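Dear H.,

Thanks for agreeing to be a second pair of eyes. The structure we're designing against is below in token form, covering all 440 positions.
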């Protein structure tokens, strides 16, 4: 349903007044470069410049920081259709703070439109609900964020949607799994937690020919690492909870795509109530100003730590696409020119208890999430994937020895020292101690 059709049938009972069709630009966070970008360089400017200036139109005597407007309702004329120049009327649909923030993200990702949501999972679920119909089929990679897998495998099944999991490293596996009813190919690259890469160009070329929409969860790479829309991907999703907001104090998400698809997804964000509130949008916009700078540091530190971990005899494998030894390093160089992200995962020697390593860290905090100033460490088997049956975990490549390190902004030498002392202090692998099953 087009946005204008949705709103043309909505009535506000108290006013008993038909709403006129709002313009697409007026919906939650949809940006179409409303502000004048010419003074700061627009599309020619580098990411660091976009992050600071996109969406700004400074006025002489006006404040230079984004003003937060927390209004839920916006004044309207009574007894008449909403005038075309009335940009906002109810904040679940759109608000000025979200609009300003969305412009910055659209500029960073190189997208025509950006919809802001109140979490990464809100972005993922609104997009899939909008684009899928009863009987449709989705292809997704085996190595995948756990809640996305649960949504695809568990919840969407009740609406008649089926899913096939393939090895995301093999673009040909997507083509092989394609059926007449395949509607969406999901890509998560680098994947959580194994850092597998999927070739954007190969998957999007096949998908376009097959009439399948491609969606990439770009949370791990961020738009500094890679910009999937430039490689032919149709929709980019972010958990803006992570690097984009960057301080570990905000849940947010984003959907970035072309206008035509945004028009299909926007009514779902509105109707599900998944939009980001003004306070959240203001906070996200503040985080975005320093995001390219922070992301550069996350990437540099992660590479340095991955290199050092490779030399540690207690570590059996290090997964980081920035390492020349990574089997997909050439692809990383091609489609992640800005860096390979801040997550490194590694497998300790099977003789060593990985849980004990995680428990013995001091500087690194055992916790879910990533993209924060502090380094977080996780044991995926007993944390994110605890609720999955052991065979399924094995098929996903989640081993008992696997540790995920979300490298923060501390000095990498200190992080490394902490991991080395935790390895030295760890006990040898016993039967895994029972832990409460935690899921995020
Ligand atoms: C790759 C990826 N996508 C999506 C999400 C979901 O994001 P949120 O927690 O903001 O809903 C996460 C969360 O960790 C993630 O790692």
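And this is the sequence the design step returned. I haven't edited it by hand at all.
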């Amino acid at each position: 349903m087009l946005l204008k059709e949705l709103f043309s049938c909505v009535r506000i009972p108290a006013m008993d007044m038909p709403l006129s069709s709002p313009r697409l630009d007026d919906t939650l966070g949809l940006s179409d470069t409303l502000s004048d970008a010419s003074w700061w360089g627009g599309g020619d400017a580098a990411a660091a410049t976009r992050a600071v200036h996109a969406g700004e139109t400074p006025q002489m005597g006006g404040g230079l920081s984004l003003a937060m407007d927390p209004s839920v309702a916006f004044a309207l004329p009574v007894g008449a259709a909403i005038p075309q120049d009335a940009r906002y009327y109810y904040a679940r649909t759109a608000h000025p703070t979200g609009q300003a923030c969305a412009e910055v993200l659209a500029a960073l990702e190189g997208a025509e439109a950006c919809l802001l949501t109140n979490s990464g999972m809100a972005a993922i679920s609104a997009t899939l609900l909008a684009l899928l119909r009863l009987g449709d089929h989705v292809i997704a990679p085996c190595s995948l964020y756990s809640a996305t897998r649960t949504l695809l495998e568990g919840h969407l099944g009740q609406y008649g949607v089926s899913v096939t999991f393939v090895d995301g490293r093999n673009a040909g596996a997507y083509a092989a799994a394609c059926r007449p009813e395949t509607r969406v190919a999901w890509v998560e690259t680098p994947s959580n937690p194994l850092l597998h890469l999927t070739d954007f160009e190969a998957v999007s070329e096949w998908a376009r020919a097959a009439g399948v929409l491609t969606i990439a969860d770009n949370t791990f790479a961020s738009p500094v690492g890679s910009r999937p829309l430039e490689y032919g991907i149709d929709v980019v999703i972010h958990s803006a909870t992570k690097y984009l907001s960057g301080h570990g104090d905000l849940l947010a998400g984003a959907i970035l795509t072309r206008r035509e698809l945004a028009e299909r997804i926007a009514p779902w964000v509105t109707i599900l109530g998944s939009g980001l509130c003004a306070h959240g949008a203001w906070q996200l916009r503040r985080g975005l100003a320093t995001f390219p700078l922070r992301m550069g540091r996350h990437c540099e530190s992660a590479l340095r730590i991955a290199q050092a971990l490779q030399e540690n005899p207690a570590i059996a494998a290090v997964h980081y696409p920035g390492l020349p030894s990574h089997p997909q390093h050439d692809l990383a160089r091609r489609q992640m020119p800005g860096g390979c992200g801040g997550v490194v995962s590694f497998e300790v020697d099977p003789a060593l208890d990985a849980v004990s390593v995680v428990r013995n860290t001091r500087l690194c905090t055992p916790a879910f999430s990533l993209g924060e100033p502090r380094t977080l460490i996780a044991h995926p088997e007993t944390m994110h994937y605890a609720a999955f049956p052991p065979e399924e975990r094995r098929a996903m490549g989640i081993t008992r020895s696997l540790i995920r390190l979300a490298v923060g902004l501390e000095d990498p030498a200190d992080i490394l020292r902490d991991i080395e002392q935790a390895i030295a202090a760890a006990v040898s692998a016993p039967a895994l101690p029972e832990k409460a099953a935690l899921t995020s």
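Two observations from my side: Residues 1-34, 433-440 have pLDDT under 50 and may be disordered. Residues 290-425 form a domain with the Aspartate Aminotransferase, domain 1 fold (CATH 3.90.1150.10).

Warmly,
E.
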